[in-house]
Amino acid sequence: MVKSNKFSGHQNQPLTMEEESPDPPFQHTYKALFDDGGRKFENAAVPIEERDLLVIDLSRLDDGVEREECKREIAKASREWGFFQVVNHGISREILEEMRREQVKVFKMAFREKVSAELLAGSYRWGTPSANCLSQLSWSEAFHVPLADISGLRGLASLSSTMEQFATTVSNLAQKLAEILAEKMGHKSIFFKENCLPDTCYLRMNRYPPCPIASEVFGLMPHTDSDFLTILHQDEIGGLQLVKDGTWIAVKPNPEALIINIGDLFQAWSNGVYRSVEHRVVTNKLVERFSTAYFFCPSYDTMIESCVEPSIYKSFSFGEFRKQVQEDVKRFGNKIGLPRFLVGDFNYAADDD
């Protein structure tokens, strides 16, 4: 069973066709999964309903008449869907387009160059090292970069500069949305300004290569996000799906908008009022997909406690939460998350098989 996606090519040997390609060697590296009866996988390629997410015009926050209604819509979408879209969000089209151009350039580099420890501070990720079956394998690659590291990136000055611009503007948007959601819970909280700082948040550039076996594997396996908020800029290809009322739905792409989704920490902080919803990305047989995600996170030692009582979740630090998630993924192949931290006699039992 493959447990690592580290590339073992030698720098001074001639490049093979596989090494020259920008695409990770999924089928070679995870051959055991494809040969081991994994084709029983019930994939999201089965047609499902495509729906538009609610679009909220944030320019209404500057209108004395519309401001409070806009805030109510943000809170309602966070309660009922856990996802919504925003326009007039303060991030210019120029920054978004430049971010996409720079992202495409770095992903088009040869695979061997991307896995180099020197490139983007070794932030490159691909596949799922812990996968035990096809349903746990993600057919995607990413650069997962702590914002604190962006200014120190070497050799990619243009990308570094663009990432800094993007991260600065998106950070401001995340703070604004978090404050609104806290206010609608009855809290004029400075918690987010004090704990979710530029050097505790992350930027993740994603690419989903064309997948010849799109009916058998996800681009990103079903999961919830482990942060407070995620802000996503995606292209027009589509592939994002989420659970609504127990049913998977496909999100109709809207390149003009940014997608906002609630993470696990906000669900715990709000005592379950705001919902961290399971979502996934399906693969495409013919075309690649790009997206950039900003993760609004606190430091690892920040304590997450419900803002109302009685709390349905135990108090925990972000570091404790991350450690538990990593242990569960390593042991079971998938994240368990917040059910591990419920108060009372609830005892989460995971299947060891």
How would you characterize the overall build of this protein?
This protein is of the alpha+beta class and 353 residues long. The protein has one domain (25-30, 37-303): B-lactam Antibiotic, Isopenicillin N Synthase, Chain (Jelly Rolls). 29% of the residues lie in helices and 20% in strands. It contains eleven helices and 15 strands. The strands form three sheets. It has an eight-stranded mixed beta sheet. Strands 1-10-9-12-7 form a five-stranded mixed beta sheet, with no helix packed on it. Strands 14-15 form a two-stranded antiparallel ribbon. α5 crosses α8. The longest helix has 27 residues, at 157-183. The model is unreliable at 1-15 and 349-353 (pLDDT under 50).
List the helices and strands and how they pair.
Blueprint: H1 17-20, H2 26-29, H3 31-35, E1 50-51, E2 55-57, H4 67-80, E3 83-87, H5 93-107, H6 111-114, E4 124-126, E5 141-146, H7 147-150, H8 157-183, H9 191-195, E6 202-208, E7 218-223, E8 229-234, E9 240-244, E10 247-251, E11 258-262, H10 264-269, E12 279-282, E13 289-296, E14 303-304, E15 316-317, H11 318-332
Parallel strand pairs: 1-10, 2-3
Antiparallel strand pairs: 3-11, 4-5, 5-6, 6-13, 7-12, 8-11, 8-13, 9-10, 9-12, 14-15
